[in-house]
Every structure is written in structure tokens, then in C-alpha cells.
Amino acid sequence: MTETIVDLETWPRAAQFQWFRSYDRPHYATTSRLDVTRLLARRDAAGINVYRASLFAISKGLHAVPELLMRFRGDTVVHHAQVDLSMPVPTARGSYNYAYVPYTPDFADFDAATKAILTKTADTDDLNAVGEGKDNVAFLSCMPWLDYTSINNAMPHKDDCIPRVNWGKYVPEGDAWKMAMTLEVHHALVDGQHVGAFFQAVQDALDAI
């Protein structure tokens, strides 16, 4: 795990970091609708797996925004060079386990590695929940049954600063196809402009697959 300590003396957001650390409810979730028209066309033309493609686009979005790779531990803020994606994987017995997918900037490499990881995870009985002190991850969850308008996530405590990403059902809108996606973050580390940059990077990645 490669991480660097953020110098609070020179970090432009140090005051905002300290301010929002004092909040009892410092998390906020933003939902936006993304265009998946081209992705679905590629699914039909090239056999692209849209779930793994969505994972890849989310990973690209997270790694395009430095603030989404930051975590704090007490008063220490660190920046990870890379984070893993963690998502629930359905099992044959009707439950789920957690998988961990490393960041890979090339879609073909990511797709092959992710397919293998998800297949292996579905065949295991260990929940494999993230361990205490491991924060170089982002938590993802797909809700393909719903075209939702808002969502938030269970948080263990107010200092949990690991981003959560949810996304929903693909639905037609005129000649296009859209899906809802939500990013939930800790305001001590992430502002609105960073959320906007994430959604733009995800959209760019979806369009480029």
C-alpha cells in the first residue's frame, strides 16, 4: 500500500477538514443520472459486461479525484496512490461475500482480473469484510432492481471516511438510456466540486469503453 501523509500546514483544505470533523453527521450523498447509451450499445456489439464496465468506470472516477483517495486517521490525513474496489458478490446459498478488486487503468486487463475475482468470491463462504485499519478501499453496491432517486449507506461511526458508490437500474429516457449513481463522502475530505469531477470522470470512462 503506497500512501503519503498530507501536510496540514500547506493543505488548502485544512480549515475545512477541522471544521467538518466536529459534525455529528458529516457525510453527504449526491445522486446524478449518467448516460449509458453507448455502453449498452457496446454490450450488444462487442459483448461487454456492463456490470464490470460500470465497476471500471467508477474506479476511473475515483482515481481521477485526489480527494477521493484521501483518508484520515485521527488528525493525520493520508493520500493513497491507489485504492481497491470492494463490493458484495452474490453466492449460491442466497447470501453474499465481499470482493476486492485492484485498480487497473486498462479496461481489458481490469475486466479479466475482475471476472476472475468475482467468480472466486462467489464460491467462498467467508464474508471477507474489510479489516480494521484497512482504508485503501472504496465501497460499491449495485441496486439493479431500482431506478432510485436517492440513497444513503450504513455508517459505523462519524469518522468513517471511505467513499461509497451506489448505482441502479438502466432505464430508457427518450432515445437514451440512463442510470442513477450516488457518491457518498465525508465532508471533511470532499467538497461539491470534487463530487462533480467524479461524475464527469465516470461519464467519460463509460463513453470511452
Could you describe the 3D structure shown?
The chain has 209 residues and is an alpha+beta fold. It has a single domain, classed as 2-Layer Sandwich (Chloramphenicol Acetyltransferase). It contains 5 helices and 10 strands. Strands 2, 5, 6, 7, 8, 9 and 10 form a 7-stranded mixed β-sheet that branches. The chain has a 3-stranded antiparallel β-sheet with strand order 1-4-3, with no helix packed on it. Strand 9 (171-173) and strand 10 (176-186) form a beta hairpin. The model has no long low-confidence stretch (mean pLDDT 96).
For the secondary structure, the number of strands is 10
- The appropriate CATH architecture is 2-Layer Sandwich
Termini separation (Å)?
Answer: 28 Å
Structural class: alpha+beta
Order of helices and strands: EHEHHEEEEHEEEEH
User: How many whole angstroms does the radius of gyration measure?
Assistant: 17 Å
- Most strands sheet: 7 strands, mixed
Beta fraction of the residues? 25-35%
CATH superfamily: Chloramphenicol acetyltransferase-like domain
Number of distinct helices: 5
Total domain units: 1
- Report the uncertain regions: none
Question: Mean pLDDT, rounded to whole units?
Answer: 96
CATH-defined fold name: Chloramphenicol Acetyltransferase
- Under CATH at level 1, the class stands as Alpha Beta
Overall outline: globular
The amount of helix comes to 25-40%
